# Entry
Amino acid sequence: MTKPQNPRRRERRVFRVPPPLVQRIDAPKLSGTDLLDDEIGSARLVFWQAFQDAELWARAEERRGLFHPGRRSERRREVECLDPQTYDAAKPHLSVLIALTERPTSIQADAVRDACAELAIWFENRGLLRCAVEFAKVASFAAPEEAPLVVRIARLLRMLGEFSRSISWFDYGYYIARRNEDWRTAAKALTGLGILFYQRGNYPRSRLYQRRCLNLARKRALPDMAGEAFHNLFVLEMDAGNVELADSHATRALALYPSDSACLILLARDLAQRWTLAGHFKASLPVQLETLQHVTRAIDRVQAWAGAGRAAAGAGERGTFEEAWLEAWHLIQAGLADPVASIALLDLAQGAVLIGDRHRAAYAARKALDFAQQRGEGHTIFEAEALLTAIQNPEPIPTRPTAPAVFTPPTLVYDVIDRLKACPR
# Structure
C-alpha cells in the first residue's frame, strides 16, 4: 500500500466555552437591585442610576439618542451632596458615568471601563461584594475582550460563595485570556478555579487546577504565578495532612515571590496557621501579629485576628486571645467578613477549646457551620461538625494538637517574618 500524497488531516478542535452566568438564579428581573439593598439614604439611588446608565450604554448597539436629556444637573448635585467622608473616593467615577448620559456617542469605552472598575474595587474594599460584582460586570461589558476584568468578576463571585456562577466566569476568562495570549490572566483563572474547588472540599480537582497553573507559569516564565500555585498547594497539602510536601511547597513559594509581593503577607499568615496546627503556638503567634501590621481589608484582618487568637490561646496568652476574639467578632457581626467568616469562626472556636471554654467554643463552631452550609464550603462543614461533636462529648477535649513525630524547626516562619518586616507598611 502506497502512502497517499495528500493525507487528510484532522481539523484542529476550536476551544469554546458558553457565555458566563450574568445573573444569579434567584435575582429579580431588574438588574442592580443589590445597590438598593446594600447602600443607604440617597446614595442608593445615585449608585443605582449610575449603574443602570452604564449597563445600558455598554450593552447598546446604537448609542445615539440613548438617554433623555432630563435631570442631569440634578444628578450632579445629588453626587456632590453625598457624605464626603464616605463617598469622596467614588465621586469622580460617578461623574464620568453622569457625563456618559450627556454625550453617549463621544465618550470612550476605556473611560467607562475604568470608572466602573474603580467603583467595583471601592465597593469591594467596603465589603459590599454584590455591589462590586455589578460594577465589575459593566466594566467587562464595556471592554469585552479584556480577560482580567472577567477573572475579577469570577473571584468576587467565589468570595460570595456563588460557585456555579464563579466557575462560568473563570472558564470564560480563561478562554479569552488564552485567545489573546494573556498568559498571566490565564494562570490567574486556573489558580482561581483551584481555590474554588478547595473551598468546596474537592481536593483532587483543586490539585489539578493548581498544577495546571504551575505548568503554565513555568512554560511562560511567570515566577510570581508559579509562587501562587505553590502557595495554594501548600495550603491544600497542609489541610490534607501531607506535612513534608506542604513545607516543600511553602519554601518554593517563598523563593518565587518578589520582596514587595502582597502575597507574601498571605503566605506568612498561612505558614503561621501551619505551625498552629502542628502545636507550635509560640512560633505562630508573632507571625500572626506581624501580619496585622500589613493588612487593611476586613477579610484579611479578621483572618489574622482569628489566627492570632487561636495561637495565643495555645501559647497561654489569655489577654491576646480575648482581644483577638473581640476584634474578629466585631468584623464578623458588621458583615464585613462574610467570605471568610466560617474559617475565622472555626479558628476562634478552636481557640476557645484551648482555653477550656466549651460554651464559647460551641457558639463559634455553630456559627461557622451555619456560614459554611450557606456557602457550600465542604471542608469547613466537615471540620465544624467534627469540632461540635468533640465539644458535646463529655470526655475532656485535647487542649493541644499532636505535634509531628519529627519536629522541623520553624526557620521558614522566621524567614517570612524578616521579609515582612522589610516591607513598607
